Structures are given as structure tokens and as C-alpha cells.
Amino acid sequence: MRAVSANLLALLLFCTCACVFYVWNSLEVSRLERYTRGLQSASWGTLHPGPPSDLPVKTFRALLTVPAAQRLHFGDGRQYVHNLTGVRDQTGSLGSRDYHINVDNKESAQKGVPESNFVSLVEEGIFWSEWLEDRLPVSFSEKHARAWRERARGQRIVKLEPGCGRISNQLATFLDGTKACVRYGINADQVQGETLTYYLAGLLGITNIPPLILSQLNVDSEQWDYVRRKIFSLQWSERAVVSLTEWVANLTGVVTPEPLRQKSKGLLPLPGELRNQTTEELVELMQWTDLIILDYLSANFDRLVSNLFSLQWDSRVMERETNNLLRTPRGNLVFIDNEAGLVHGFRVLDMWEKYHSTILGSVCVFRKRTAQRVIELHRRRDTRTRLLELYRDSEPLSPELGFFSDEHAGVLQTRIDRVYKHITHCKGMYHQL
Predict the structure, then answer these.
(1) Where are the domains positioned within the chain?
(2) pLDDT tens-place string over residues 277-295
(3) Among 386, 305, 397, residue whose Cα is nearest residue 345
């Protein structure tokens, strides 16, 4: 009798909990729907008014996971706050394994800014000086990237486990013990965006994205046969094209620097303000300017733009770690999880463009090499052709994954032209400094 009573009591408790969860879930869904209905009518006059004050801090992530039919063209997003490489899982967990960087610098980046007036931080008004460029190691050299891609294509995968963001992605261990993050996209747009952003960065000479290859799932192939049971349990589709990105150990999160926060005047080539920064801070700011150009061109809303958007209900979001951006112990920034760029980013551009423009407009100092690449792509007007050639020459599976449409190629060229105009505008304002 006691056993029957205990079972009835347990059943009653379970039913009560289920009811509470159902009511709570309904309220959350209702609140989210109210927000999305009112989103497009929100004023841009200030960043803070907008969504109801009771929206949870992670509503931006919730919006990205709303099904496509309910999304107001938000597209596919992620359900995690960090990123592709899963910084919380990787810090200090992989021993001494690290990635290759070019350390052939004239001096260590640890030294402070010289007080000598002969040392300039900015050249030609708007470009970071050669003195600073010499203190920035190359993150992932072309030689290293090419060697990693070659090796990864022939490596057998012996283990798949969580550790690369959302559950559909997996941390893969190769037979030689090295690791890579496997991105299995909810749809092809995500893998395509990740891949094409990597090659766009290469076209611009930006080396902060880890090497990437494509692979086609085939449980009978030498690369995937050892983990066939795991693939079946993950319900990954046979013949799907996935991306594998080099795993980088010992990374830490990155907070948006003060000059790029909402109450700042922006990152301007003013000697007085720049000299208040340490050498380490200046070297990091250089990399931020590359990041801002790349994210603007690719329309990647899932990094600094998402923080700017979230200011509407979270005034301290800029004081916390930036999505999908990490730092190595040497001070190199690593741009990860770029699936929101290009293909998907262009589809939802109307929603995010004002934020992209605001961030681009906050910067008027650039790396000279990056600016020269933008100027060249503007003048030759062949961005689509050059990106496609680089992609096809470097990736054997490019025909299977495909390329973006002519319409999106036109969007990219237009954004190249806008960045060129912005650089020209900054040059006109600050060339006499």
C-alpha cells in the first residue's frame, strides 16, 4: 500500500512540474512573439529603448533559433553564447598543442610605446604604422594553412565529441591526436558562409581565421568509417558536406576595447588618444580594424553587431566577452564561427544594416595592406571572380558545396565600394595629421 501511495505522490509531483513548465514556456513564447512583431518599428534614435524590459539577456540567441517561418528573416542562428571552438572546453585542456604563428618580429609586442617623437603610430593620416605592424605576428600563415589543409584531408577521424558550440557540431580527433571542429550545418548556407568568409579573409590578406577544409560524409570512407556509429547517432545525413576547422588550444575571451564601445568617439587616428594605449592594446586594436572591415563586407551580424543590437536591453553587453572572438596567449585575435557571414548575412541584411554601418563608421584607422586590397577590389570590380578562383583552386569540394548567387556577388561588390568610400572619407578628414 505504501508503495502505491508513493507512486501516486510521485506521479502527482511530475504532473505538477509538467504543468508549470508548460505555462512558463507558453509565456516565454508569447513574449518573444510580441517582441518580434514590434521589432521593425523600433526607433534607431537611441540604442536603449526598444524591447520590453522583461526580455531575458539571451533573447538575441533565442531570436536566432526561431523557426524560419516565424523569424522575420532572421535566418539560422546559434543556441550558445561562445563559439565554434568552445573556449570553455579548450582552455588548458589540450596540453602544449598550439598553432603556428610567425614570430619573426623585430621586437617583442610586450614592449611599451616609445616616447620618442620620431616614432609614429599612424602613417599617411589613417594607416597603422610600420612600427606597429612589425609587432604583430601572423596568426595563420599561408604556409601553415596549406600544410594543415593537406594533412587534414588525408587524416582518419577516430573520435567525435561535443566541444564546438551547438550540439550539431562536433570536436573531431584525428589519428595523429590533433583536433578539428566539424561544422554540420542545419542547412548548406551555414557551411557555405563559414567557408566563403574564410576565403574572403584570404583575399583581403587577413590571417586571423584558422585553416578550413570541406569533407563529404561517407561512413564507408577511410576518413569517417571509424566514427560511423557516432554519425548515425547524431543523425547526420550521408553525403552532406561539412567543414573542418583547425582546433586552437589555450584561447581566452575578448572584451570590446573602450574606443569601440557605444559611448566612445570611435577609433580615430588622433595621436593624443592613441598614445594613451599600450603597445599590446594598439596591436589588438589593429586586429579589430581588420575584423570590422571583414564583418562589414560579409555582413556577419553574430559578433560585434549582435552586441550593439543587444544594447537595447543590456547596457553592459560591451563589457562582456564578444561572441565568436578569442585571443591566443601571444595576443593574436582569432575570428571563429563565421557562418552568419555572406550567404545568410546577405539574406537578412535589411535587419542589420544600420548596425553594420554604425560600426564601420566608428573606425577611421586601418591596416594599410587591408585598405590596399579593398581599394584594388573596388577599382578592378572583380571581387566575385577572384573569390571564386581562390575558392575553387584551394578546395576540391567547392563544386559540391557551391558558390553564392550573382545577386549576392553584387551585394559583396557594393559593400567593397562602400568601404572604399569610407576609407577615402577618413583620408580626407585626417590626412594632414
Answers:
(1) 115-138+254-430, 142-246
(2) 899 999 999 999 999 999 9
(3) 305
